[in-house]
C-alpha cells in the first residue's frame, strides 16, 4: 500500500472518529442545556409560584379569621385579594406542570383540598359574619374544622413542593452524570488527536520530524493541563503549521464548550440542598408575640441567584424586641454564607448585651471575606415605654412614621467590613400608633416599564397608603409588596426585605 494511501486511510479514519466525538460532545452539551432550561424555565418558577401560593393561602386564612372576629370588611378584602392571587398561582402552575402527569396530579389534589377548605371551612365563616351572626362565625373558627382543612390543603401543597425539589435534585444528578460523560469524550477526542499526529509523524519524512515532535510535546502539555488553557504554537513547514493551527482551533472550541457547560452547572448549583438550606435559614424569621407591638416582616429571595438579605426579630432582656435588617454585598453561595455568619453573630450579641452598637462591632469582628461588605440596621424597642435604641451601619435609614412626621434612623458608623469601625447607639421614641419601617434596596430599586425606580419617595407613598388602609402590620407589609410588585417589571431581580412594627 502506497504511502499516500496510508496517509489518506489514517486521515479519513481519524477524521471520522473525531467527528463522532464532536457529535457526541454536541449531543451531551445540548442535553445539559435542555436540563438547565427545564430547571430555569419550569421547575424553579413552579417552585417559586408554590411559595407564593402558600403565602396567599396563609393570608386568606388570616383575613377570614380576623374578619370573623372583627367584622371589618377590610379584613375580608385581604381574604378576597389573597384568593385572587391564589387562583392566579394555580393557573401559572397549570402552565408550568402541563407536561408532567405526576406533578399535575399533585396540583389537582392541592386545588381540590384548597377548594374544600375555602368552600366548607372559610365560606361558612364569612357568610355568618356577613349576616351579623358573629357568634356562629366565632364558633366555626374555634371548632378547629377550618384549621384542619387548611392544614390538609397545605400538606398537599408541601407535597407538591417536595416533588418539585426532588425533580430539581434529579436534574442536577443527571447533569452531573452528563458532565462526567462529556469529560470522558473530551479525553477520547484529545487522545485521537494525539494518535493522528503520531501517525502523521511516522509517515512524514525526516526533515519535518523535529517540528512534529515539538508539536507533539505541546499537545502533551496541553492535555496534561487541568483547564486546557495552554495554547498550541505550531512551527515548521506549512503542512505542519496547518495541522497545529487546526489543533489549536479544536482546543479553543472544546474549551469554549466546557466553559458553557460549566456556566450551566453553576446556575444549577443554586438549587442544591445545601444552598437551599442556607437560603431557608436566611429567609425564615418570625416575630415573637409581644402585646404592645404588632410586627411583621417578609424576605423574598431573588430569582435564580443567592444574595445576602436577611431580617430577624428576637425578644431580649427586659422584654425588649430587637429588629435587624442586613444586606450583604454580592450574590452567590459565598454571599449567603457570609450573611448567615453575620446573622448568628448579631443575634448572639443582642441576646448577651442588648446594645445595637455592640452588635455592630461584633458583626464587623466576625467578617471573614475581605472582598465583601454589608449594610445593617439594628433597632431595639421597649414596648412598655416606646423607647427606641438603634445603630446603623450604612443601611437605608429606617423610618418612624407618625402621621405626617417621619424620623429617619440615620447611620451611626461605617459599613460592616473586615476593616471594622465604631458604631454609636442613638435613641428616639416610638409613640402609640406610630410605625417603624425597615427595608433593603431590592424594594426601592425595583423599576417600572420606564426604568424608573420606586425610590424613597415612592416607598413612602406606598407606606402611607398601606398604614391608612390596613389594620395590622402583616396587612401593611402585604399591601406594600403587592403595590410594588404591580408596578415593577423586574420584580425579584434582587432580594426584597420589608419589616413593619407598630406600637399599640
Label the overall shape. elongated
Structural class: alpha+beta
Mind telling me the CATH class of the largest domain? Answer: Alpha Beta
| CATH structural fold name of the largest domain | Phosphatase 2c, domain 1
N- and C-termini, Cα separation: 100 Å
* pLDDT averaged over residues: 84
Helical residue percent band = 55-70%
Let me know the largest β-sheet: 5 strands, antiparallel
> What Rg, in angstroms, do the CA atoms define?
31 Å
Poorly predicted runs: none
Number of domains: 3
Percent strand equals 5-15%
What is the name of the CATH architecture of the largest domain? 4-Layer Sandwich
- The string of secondary-structure elements, in order, is HHHHHHHHEEEHHEEEEEEHHHE
Tally of DSSP β-strands:
10
Task: Count helical runs.
Answer: 13
Provide the spatial order of strands within the biggest beta sheet.
Answer: 1-10-9-6-7
CATH level-four homologous superfamily name of the largest domain:
PPM-type phosphatase domain
Overall description:
With 504 residues, this protein is α+β, with helices and mostly antiparallel strands. The protein has three domains: 3-32 and 175-269, no CATH class; 43-165, Four Helix Bundle (Hemerythrin (Met), subunit A); 283-503, 4-Layer Sandwich (Phosphatase 2c, domain 1), CATH 3.60.40. 62% of the residues lie in helices and 13% in strands. The protein has 13 helices and ten strands. The protein has helices spanning 3-70, 73-96, 101-130, 134-143, 145-203, 209-224, 238-269, 273-283, 333-352, 356-365, 441-444, 455-469, 473-487, and strands spanning 293-300, 308-315, 321-328, 374-381, 387-393, 399-402, 405-408, 426-429, 435-439, 496-503. The strands form two sheets. Strands 1-10-9-6-7 form a five-stranded antiparallel β-sheet. It has a five-stranded antiparallel β-sheet with strand order 2-3-4-5-8. α1 packs antiparallel against α5 (145-203), α8 packs parallel to α9 (333-352) and α12 (455-469) crosses α13 (473-487). The protein is elongated and about 105 Å long. The model has no long low-confidence stretch (mean pLDDT 84).
Amino acid at each position: 500500500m502506497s504511502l499516500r494511501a496510508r496517509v489518506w486511510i489514517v486521515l479519513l479514519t481519524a477524521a471520522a472518529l473525531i467527528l463522532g466525538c464532536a457529535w457526541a460532545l454536541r449531543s451531551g452539551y445540548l442535553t445539559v442545556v435542555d436540563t438547565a432550561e427545564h430547571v430555569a424555565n419550569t421547575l424553579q418558577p413552579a417552585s417559586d409560584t408554590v411559595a407564593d401560593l402558600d403565602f396567599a393561602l396563609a393570608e386568606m386564612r388570616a383575613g377570614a379569621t380576623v374578619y370573623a372576629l372583627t367584622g371589618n370588611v377590610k379584613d375580608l378584602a385581604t381574604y378576597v385579594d389573597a384568593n385572587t392571587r391564589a387562583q392566579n398561582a394555580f393557573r401559572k402552575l397549570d402552565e408550568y406542570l402541563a407536561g408532567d402527569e405526576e406533578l399535575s396530579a399533585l396540583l389537582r389534589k392541592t386545588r381540590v383540598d384548597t377548594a374544600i377548605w375555602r368552600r366548607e371551612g372559610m365560606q361558612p365563616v364569612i357568610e355568618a359574619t356577613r349576616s351579623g351572626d358573629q357568634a356562629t362565625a366565632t364558633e366555626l373558627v374555634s371548632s378547629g374544622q377550618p384549621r384542619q382543612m387548611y392544614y390538609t390543603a397545605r400538606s398537599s401543597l408541601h407535597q407538591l413542593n417536595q416533588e418539585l425539589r426532588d425533580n430539581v435534585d434529579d436534574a442536577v444528578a443527571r447533569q452531573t452524570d452528563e458532565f462526567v460523560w462529556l469529560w470522558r469524550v473530551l479525553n477520547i477526542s484529545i487522545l485521537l488527536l494525539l494518535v493522528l499526529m503520531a501517525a502523521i509523524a511516522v509517515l512524514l519524512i525526516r526533515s519535518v520530524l523535529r517540528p512534529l515532535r515539538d508539536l507533539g510535546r505541546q499537545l502533551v502539555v496541553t492535555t496534561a493541563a487541568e483547564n486546557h488553557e495552554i495554547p498550541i504554537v505550531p512551527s515548521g513547514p506549512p503542512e505542519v503549521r496547518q495541522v497545529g493551527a487546526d489543533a489549536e482551533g479544536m482546543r479553543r472550541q472544546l474549551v469554549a464548550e466546557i466553559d458553557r457547560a460549566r456556566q450551566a452547572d453553576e446556575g444549577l448549583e443554586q438549587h442544591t440542598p445545601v444552598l437551599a438550606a442556607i437560603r431557608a435559614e436566611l429567609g425564615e424569621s418570625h416575630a415573637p408575640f409581644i402585646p404592645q407591638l404588632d410586627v411583621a416582616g417578609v424576605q423574598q429571595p431573588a430569582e435564580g441567584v443567592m444574595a445576602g438579605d436577611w431580617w430577624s426579630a428576637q425578644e431580649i432582656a427586659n422584654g425588649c424586641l430587637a429588629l435587624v435588617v442586613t444586606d450583604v454585598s454580592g450574590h452567590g453561595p459565598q454571599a449567603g454564607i457570609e450573611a448567615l455568619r453575620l446573622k448568628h453573630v448579631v443575634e448572639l450579641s443582642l441576646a448577651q448585651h442588648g446594645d445595637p452598637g455592640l452588635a455592630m462591632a461584633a458583626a464587623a469582628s466576625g467578617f471573614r471575606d475581605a472582598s465583601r461588605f454589608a449594610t445593617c440596621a439594628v433597632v431595639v424597642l421597649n414596648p412598655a415605654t416606646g423607647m427606641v435604641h438603634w445603630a446603623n451601619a450604612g443601611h437605608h435609614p429606617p423610618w418612624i412614621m407618625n402621621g405626617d412626621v417621619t424620623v429617619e434612623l440615620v447611620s451611626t458608623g461605617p459599613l460592616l467590613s473586615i476593616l471594622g469601625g465604631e458604631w454609636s447607639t442613638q435613641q428616639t421614641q416610638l409613640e402609640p400608633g406610630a410605625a417603624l419601617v425597615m427595608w433593603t434596596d431590592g424594594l426601592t430599586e425595583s423599576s417600572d416599564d420606564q426604568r424608573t425606580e420606586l425610590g424613597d419617595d415612592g416607598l413612602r407613598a406606598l407606606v402611607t397608603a398601606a398604614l391608612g388602609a390596613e389594620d395590622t402590620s402583616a396587612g401593611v407589609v402585604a399591601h406594600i409588596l403587592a403595590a410594588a410588585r404591580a408596578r415593577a417589571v423586574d420584580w425579584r431581580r434582587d432580594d426584597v426585605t420589608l419589616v413593619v412594627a407598630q406600637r399599640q
